[in-house]
Design goal:
Layout: H1 11-31, H2 34-108, E1 118-126, E2 134-137, E3 150-152, E4 157-161, E5 169-173, E6 180-185, E7 191-196, E8 203-209, E9 219-222, E10 234-242, E11 249-256, E12 265-269, H3 273-286
Antiparallel strand pairs: 1-2, 1-12, 2-5, 3-4, 3-12, 4-5, 6-7, 6-9, 7-8, 8-11, 9-10, 10-11
Length: about 290
């Protein structure tokens, strides 16, 4: 028969034994390699248990991710369908406008515009000079590009090419303080020169008479003058107009429509197809 009350070691004795065992195990672990082997075996034994314990959570997260991905794809698909419908509607209007344009040009007995050649380029680097707004693209003389060639992105005018290298070329952005581009106000047709300010988000129009019909929100497009940038490409949107009666002209500031601080893919434009050979020939003559 087991006694009800059993005499056991005191708490202090048990505590001392525990400390002694702990110190012994620590010394054994520190001075021998056997403990490392034991830990490896224990880890190998416990790993399947850990995987099994994490399996439900991983399954739930996987299902949630698939549901979320499916929802995001459905939402993106809906947006793309809407965008496609809007673009189709614009294409229908474009076809009508193109047809009307042909008729008007026939009445005016003027020659139609040629389709411009273009080439996609990728931005490889951004200039680290704080006083110069330039990026480097992966196109050069091997691709028949030339100095002064206009560059745009999917939103509007970006700038123009500097002296091209063999495989890379610097692009001078329209916000560079040395850059200027002929523009016109889309709403009124008034012509002006847009100059870079050294600020990536701002260009300015100088020598604008106070009486000029210009408003905040007016869109600026290329005028086609100077035969550098083709006509009709978006350049910027007017953001601020300073009319100081003590000065002869107003100062107009605009925000570039191109996302100059996040450029990735650009489009290099040539002039009319008939002028491409002439541009290349000029370049070859300059290079000697």
């Amino acid at each position: 028969m087991n006694p009800i009350f059993v005499r056991r070691p005191s708490l202090k004795v048990r505590f001392s034994i525990a400390i002694g065992l702990s110190l012994s195990l620590m010394a054994f672990d520190h001075f021998t390699d056997t403990s490392a082997i034991v830990r490896t075996y224990l880890t190998s034994i416990i790993s399947p248990v850990l995987y099994l314990a994490d399996a439900p959570q991983e399954a739930i997260e996987s299902v949630a991710l698939r549901i979320k991905t499916k929802e995001s794809l459905m939402e993106e698909n809906a947006l793309l369908r809407q965008f496609q419908l809007e673009q189709n509607e614009k294409l229908q209007q474009f076809a009508l406008l193109q047809q009307e344009n042909k008729k008007l040009r026939a009445l005016l007995n003027s020659s139609p515009r040629h389709q411009s050649k273009s080439m996609v380029a990728e931005v490889m680097a951004v200039s680290k000079d704080r006083f110069s707004h330039q990026v480097v693209v992966n196109r050069g003389t091997l691709d028949k590009v030339y100095e002064g060639q206009p560059v745009i992105d999917d939103l509007g005018v970006v700038g123009q090419l500097l002296t091209p290298g063999t495989t890379t070329t610097h692009v001078l952005l329209i916000t560079d303080s040395t850059q200027a581009i002929p523009i016109r106000i889309e709403r009124t047709g008034v012509r002006a020169i847009a100059e870079g300010t050294g600020n990536i988000d701002r260009i300015k129009l100088n020598h604008i008479p106070h009486s000029t019909d210009i408003r905040v929100g007016d869109r600026l497009i290329t005028s086609g003058l100077a035969q550098r940038f083709p006509e009709g490409y978006p350049v910027g949107v007017v953001t601020k107009i300073i009319r100081d009666e003590g000065r002869q002209f107003s100062t107009v500031f605009a925000r570039p429509v191109a996302q100059l601080d996040r450029l990735k893919y650009l489009l290099l434009l040539w002039g009319a197809v008939d002028d491409i050979g002439e541009a290349v020939q000029i370049e070859e003559e300059e290079n000697g």
